[in-house]
Design a protein that fits this description.
Helices cover 38% and strands 28% of the residues. By secondary structure, it is α/β, with parallel strands linked by helices. The longest helix has 31 residues.
């Protein structure tokens, strides 16, 4: 019994899956005016396409044998008594056809093949596109390049076909009913524009090279006029002229108003010689102008959108409104910065914006980044159980010439330097004693340029790790950048540390190995002599190089401590 039910189920499924789609009849419309030499061949080629059910040649008032040649080839012929134009011929054929799918093909193509026709119609049959239009290689395209493309790019920038004036189209009949057919050569570009505005998808199909008669200059002149007229009329109809002209003026005036607001706010905070009253008047005037014209832009844009059924205006809208949108974004960012810097206390509103610092090093100093943007930094309390740690962003460390695992001495208290926690990129966490010594409150926002001033005089033990030794230099933070000197620490012909900093003239600096003073160097007349010594079976050289660089690292002199401390690693440490 079960096997019988299984068989019935499979039979029903196969009946459903094998249901054939509705047959779609295809009609090819061929407009022809004095094309007796080629029309029959075009008809013969189309007849070889298996799925074409109907071929209609619209004889648009020809004075030669176009009608008889088309009839001999087996086409249905519809005659216009007088020449009415290509658009009217297409419209006549479209209305007379009773097929589901309509294709338009020019009658003057010498090398048309059934494959070219199939390539144009198959995407419609398969439901891959709503309209297909062809592109092809040919010798001339003067009207396209000199008139159609520039105007389309100006009024309809979202349309970017290689050949918008191609005369070969295919689509469904119900779609063509939505299109307004031009009576002349403007019909091709009119179909493209209407489809774009209505949100109808167009697929451009490459059918290779084609050969047809070259139009004389007089015909090209007429064609160009009709194409231009069609594009301008469509631009008027769909509000693109308003968008470019009237809305464009309103956008420019809105930008003027926004720029006045931005300029006046900048003046309040950064230009001291301009009175605040003048800046306030400029701000108020700018707000009035910008609001007035922004409202006008919104109203006119809304009216323009009503003329566009599918709202297919995104690219054009962005292109026209982009400058105003950018100005608004800049102003909003500026205002949000001021709001974030606002403090209200005891009935007093204070706004103190803090900017980031752009750092560009033009000297030869060995630094991690030649160009960087740092700060501002917010002061906060140390984390519980971290009373001997200072957490600091890497940008702040670079400014102070320190790094993780260094040691900082503030007012006699020693603190280890550590990275900030995740999500706290611009927060400096200081223990209470350190904050008191530096006279900082939690929540204080300090610019990068003030770090040197705040930490001036703090002692630093800066570490360099190598395979065989740990080198520690000792310096204090200076509030001002001064010219410094570079030096290399070389052990057994291998550089174990490279640094730079400030040395005071006519001063002596001690160097120790394993806490034993082994030598001293003297900075005399802004020069050092290299120092060579031996310790524990190792050869050492301190090599100084005077370069064009600056530093805030003020190395300690002999009367302040040891400038350089080298600690040799044991064999076990080296192997680790």
């Amino acid at each position: 019994m079960y096997w019988f039910l299984v068989i019935i189920t499979f039979l029903l499924a196969s009946i459903k899956s094998n249901k054939k789609p509705k047959y779609q009849k295809v009609s090819v419309i061929i407009p022809a005016y004095n094309e007796e030499e080629t029309v029959a061949k075009v008809v013969e080629v189309v007849k070889n396409v298996s799925f074409v059910d109907e071929i209609i040649v619209v004889n648009d008032g020809s004075t030669d044998n176009t009608e008889s040649e088309a009839l001999k080839a087996g086409a249905i012929v519809i005659n216009h008594e007088v020449n009415k134009g290509k658009g009217e011929a297409l419209n006549t054929g479209f209305k007379e056809s009773e097929c589901d799918i309509i294709a338009f093909i020019d009658a003057d193509i010498y090398n048309l093949t059934s494959k070219k026709v199939e390539a144009m119609i198959m995407p419609i049959l398969e439901g891959k596109a709503e309209i297909t239009k062809t592109k092809f290689a040919r010798e001339s395209g003067r009207v396209t390049e000199l008139t159609a493309k520039p105007l389309l790019n100006f009024f309809f920038p979202e349309i970017s076909f290689e050949q918008p004036l191609s005369g070969q189209f295919a689509t469904r009949k119900e779609i063509l009913k939505k299109i307004n057919f031009e009576v002349d050569y403007g019909v091709d570009v009119g179909i493209v524009i209407d489809a774009d505005v209505l949100g109808i998808s167009i697929m451009e199909i490459d059918i290779g090279a084609i050969q047809h008669d070259m139009s004389p200059l007089a015909d090209l002149h007429l064609m160009a006029n009709e194409v231009v007229r069609t594009i301008i009329n469509r631009a008027n109809k769909y509000g693109r002229v308003v968008m470019i002209d009237e809305i464009g003026y309103d956008i420019r005036m809105a930008i003027v108003g926004l720029s006045m607001v931005i300029l006046s706010l900048f003046t309040v905070f950064f230009v001291k010689f301009v009175p605040v009253a003048i800046a306030a008047v400029l701000t108020l005037l700018g707000i009035i102008i910008s609001l007035y014209y922004i409202i006008k832009v919104i109203i006119k844009s809304a009216q323009m959108f009503k003329k566009t059924p599918k709202r297919n205006l995104i690219k054009s809208f962005i292109k026209i409104h982009f400058p105003m949108i950018i100005s608004i974004i800049i102003l909003l960012l500026m205002i949000s910065t001021f709001i974030g810097a606002a403090h209200f206390e005891n009935g007093v509103l204070s706004i103190e914006p803090n900017s980031r610092n752009l750092i560009i090093y033009a000297d030869d100093s060995p630094r991690d980044n030649t160009i960087s943007v740092r700060g501002p930094f917010t002061i906060d309390s140390a984390i519980e159980n971290e009373s001997s740690q200072i957490r600091m962003p890497s940008d702040a460390m670079m400014t102070l010439g320190i790094k993780t695992n260094d040691t900082m001495v503030i007012n006699g208290e020693t603190y280890s330097i550590n990275d900030t926690r995740p999500g706290e990129q611009d927060i400096i966490r200081l223990p209470n004693e350190a904050r008191k010594a530096l006279d900082l409150q939690t929540g204080a926002v300090i610019q990068n340029s003030r770090l040197k001033e705040i930490f001036e005089g703090a002692g630093i033990l800066h570490r360099y790790e190598s395979d065989n030794a740990t080198t520690i230099e000792k310096f204090t933070v200076s509030s001002r950048d001064k010219y410094g000197c570079n030096f290399d620490v070389i052990m057994d012909n291998v550089t174990i540390a490279n640094s730079f900093g400030i040395f005071r003239d006519n001063s002596t600096y001690d160097i120790t190995v394993d806490d034993n003073v082994v030598t001293s160097v003297t900075y005399l007349n802004h020069t050092f002599s290299n120092s060579n010594f031996t310790y524990g079976g190792h050869e050492f050289e301190i090599k100084f190089v005077d370069r064009n660089n600056t530093s805030i690292k003020q190395f300690v002199r002999t009367d302040q401590g040891n400038f350089l401390n080298i600690y040799l690693k044991s064999v076990n440490e080296t192997n680790e």
